Each structure stands twice: as C-alpha cells, then as structure tokens.
Fold this sequence. Notes:
By secondary structure, the chain is an all-beta fold. The protein is built from no helices and eleven strands. It has strands spanning 2-7, 10-13, 18-26, 28-39, 46-51, 57-59, 67-72, 77-82, 91-101, 105-110, 114-119.
Amino acid sequence: QAQVRESGGGLVQAGGSLRLSCTASGSFYSINAMGWYRQAPGKQRELVASFTSGGSTNYADSVKGRFTISRDNTKNTMYLQMNSLKPEDTAVYYCNAHVDAVVAGSKWYWGRGTQVTVSS
C-alpha cells in the first residue's frame, strides 16, 4: 500500500514564506503526476501547482510568481516553496500523487493535508 504525507505547514505573517513537503512511501513502482491542492473554509478544493507525468509544471494564476513546485525523485518527495504569502493563501494544503502501487495498481492518492495560516 502506498501513501503520501504532507509536512511543513504553519502560521506565518503576510509577506513571509513557508516550504511544504510531500513524501510518498510504501510499496510502489513509480510516482507519475504529483500536485498540490488547497481548500479554504467554505470553498472548493483547488489546484495550486502540479507536475504532469511528462514533467511539466502548472500553476494557478493566483500563485504564479510566488510559489514554486519542485521534486526530488531520489527521495520520492515534492516541495512547494511559498513566498510573499497573503492572507488569502490560508487553507489546508493537500498533496495528490498518481502512483503505480505494487498491490493496488495505478491510482491517485491524497495526503491528509497540512494547515497554512497567513496572518495580516
């Protein structure tokens, strides 16, 4: 069974920075696409940034120029560097990964989320 787990959330003042990490663990052959999503109170979950299976990146317009997604395949870990944070970035951030698991086969996995709170 594969799983993904986020870390690195916290409380930061507006203008500050945080780096989130997402690590995949368990029994799997490969990690394909990966991405970060977020959900603010009362709002739908939205894509923040992602890697496609081909390795290209996508960003939500609201975070372009401020957030950077990166990946260390040797550690099965994806990062989200968040700079110039704004109060509207406050949300629970989720990792999503498409994994070729040994037992379950190819499927999407969600982490449990990590809270990011930006104070004004």
